[in-house]
């Protein structure tokens, strides 16, 4: 009996074991196809939560043994959205269809302190995925978005050491940098330059105040959310991206060569001085340029994870030569991102660390080199017969630009570190608690050295050539060389704590966030010193102790800005509530309370509210039987944001300092007195934006469109008002008072006109128009005038001439100058005086007229993507229309009377030296700045199903700035659009380049 029982138990155990074995291991088979039901060879099929997986064969088929019948599959393929498949029922002959890219409506959008689906947005947000960003030798992240986002005006030169200027929906203030506020992986205020383009997954551009008000006082210029790539616990991936490129100057000014200039001077009875005419034929622009500038980038990344964690690590090396000699940029970026889950995945810890080390080798006296390269006579050689540099120090302001480069050094080194530790805890009842702690530290070391050769320039009046609106000043290089060295550190500590609530009650969905933010900044913690009189030239700026500056009469060591060191603090509370009824009616409200130490004691705190709503019309009953719209949404929002950039820790405080000298008892004694007035009532600038938007999708997503109309007004604009010294001893005070307005429309269109088995064409077009106006420039307590003339390039013979004006009722960038009226009977240029009469002797500032402005009327970006089998081609055009450029460079080169001392343009050959007015700054030199540029063309080939180790391989070639169509006669119409002096080309334009590069992307 016992044996019988034992046999029965054994049999039962074997049966149970067999059943359990079958239950734990299940064979799954199927096929992976694309949108057109074509097989996808080389697709990855993984069992979710494990590392077990296979790759589909040439017919897109796969077989995989999974742990249980209810397992999940994760299917992925390059260029297609990942698909999660839950097994149930049949385990054979599965057909899994992947779509090319994520569904636009279901796309996750990153907003302040949270995420949301695009379909339920009530605000104006534009998302750009990594594959849609600009390609090329790009060292500045701002250039990745150039032309990609409606309303985002980005301008850049060819200088790899300078960032692009970014202006969103028009200039909001006269004070700050005007650039948007960057948030990287939830960390506010990150220096965007430390993020490698290869590490970026998506960029979300928050444009209206309802979207940005959650960042309160720093959001007046818009907010850009950057999300970097994360690891996946579903699979391990190693990727290597690299390119090599060469850049050449795309255009130069058409200056006279020696033959042309000699013929011009002979015809007009002008003579070169023997000191300048050495019988040469020098192209000075060519002499300061490289024949070709090389660039390269290497990015190696590894990502993956397990059941309870994921990780991503990368290292990037970027090197880019500038087209100007001695202009170079290099950067190495290392990044680590780790996420760890604990307590049944209810707690998630995150650690992100990024360190960027950069080196900028700048052109010594860059703007002066650019000026001298066009001014120098072609009949003068670069070097004398004995090999020394040619110079004529008896000629004022006449310097050899090649010598300036060779005998000077200007370098900057930067180390940028950011660390962020996050904790996310899932609580009962739909609550989630987040704690973010971040530390940022930027260390910069800058050095300049001008050897003893530069000392010779002191006798010839060496003026610098600063970017507008700054005015040139005299520079002295001491004796036997001069050096400058400084080292500064900026640190930023942030603690942010917020509670999210996400709950659904039938047709009602509520998402809310309540949080607190604390931030402390220390800026300019360091030192600076200068020295002169070195024993030898090869010490550079590295050893100031070798100088003997005390023996140089009158030399004063420059210890830098007395206000360089600053400590500021920002404390904030914020809240946001989103309400969703049946995915049909959407409401959002936010409020942020900010307290900042930079403002007056009576106005440290500011409130920034916003409200937004949306109606998803396509969800209404009357829309259910139509097949035209798959999405139709109407949006409206209003919000207030603030501006705290452009002001330092001492803006509102009383400051005393050096106030010149006075004569006492036979000596000039240093005076000490007030240099800045206190203003305890100084408060935030506030920018209020009203936004109306319409989003639609047609023909099952084949056509999409978005339209936004906005009205943005900045009030309490901070400005440095000139006042009666009786009221304020220093004669000026920083106070609130101005008003600036921006009104515009933005249109974004997307379509897939052709989609067949082998060929797909998709296209995207964005158009934006903005109208800027200074509504008010005065303060009730400090009236003053309602206009300020500014931007004074100070070209030869142009003393006192200004180009622009800040004026109530006019836009920023309004040109205000002489109005050219052609030539009189004697061939002399004449102008309209203030009364409209003709004159050949106009007065600067008196006979001025409003003659156009620098603000563009339209910005356009048009991208086209073609895919044929394994080939892909992208072509991107960018355009700016309706803006004016003041070509001060051309005016300064239009001086026939001085053709024997400085070079002139070829198209000035018909000018007569008798025209003593030809060069005067006037409407004659205001040109149409409109242009269309073929900005980028990329052709690639994708190798698929190479082997089990190589998942994908892509080879591509990219050409940037292939051509530009414009009427502008300068080097390039893309002059500076940021700052407070937009649209001025003033002998300082770093040449743009045309680049060609070859790249490789491989994934293992």
What does it look like?
Belongs to the TonB-dependent receptor family. Keywords: Cell outer membrane, Membrane, Receptor, Signal, TonB box, Transmembrane, Transmembrane beta strand, Transport. It comes from Flavobacterium seoulense. The chain has seven helices and 49 strands. It has 1004 residues and is mainly beta. It folds into two domains: 25-97, Carboxypeptidase-like, regulatory domain (Immunoglobulin-like, Sandwich), CATH 2.60.40.1120; 243-646 and 671-1003, TonB-dependent receptor, beta-barrel domain (Maltoporin, Chain A, Beta Barrel). The strands form nine sheets. It has a 22-stranded antiparallel barrel. Strands 36, 37, 38, 39, 40 and 41 form a six-stranded antiparallel beta sheet that branches. The protein has a five-stranded mixed beta sheet with strand order 10-15-16-13-14. 41% of the residues are buried.
Task: Provide the helix percentage.
Answer: under 10%
Largest sheet: 22 strands, antiparallel, barrel
Report how far the terminal alpha carbons are from each other.
62 Å
Oligomer: single chain
CATH architecture of the largest domain: Beta Barrel
Helix count equals 7
Strand content: over 45%
Could you name the CATH homologous superfamily of the largest domain? TonB-dependent receptor, beta-barrel domain
Q: Which fold name corresponds to the CATH topology of the largest domain?
A: Maltoporin, Chain A
Q: What's the mean pLDDT score?
A: 88
Give the class from helix and strand content and strand pairing: mainly beta
Number of domains: 2
At the first level of CATH, the class of the largest domain is Mainly Beta
Number of E-type strands = 49
Radius of gyration over all CA atoms, rounded:
32 Å
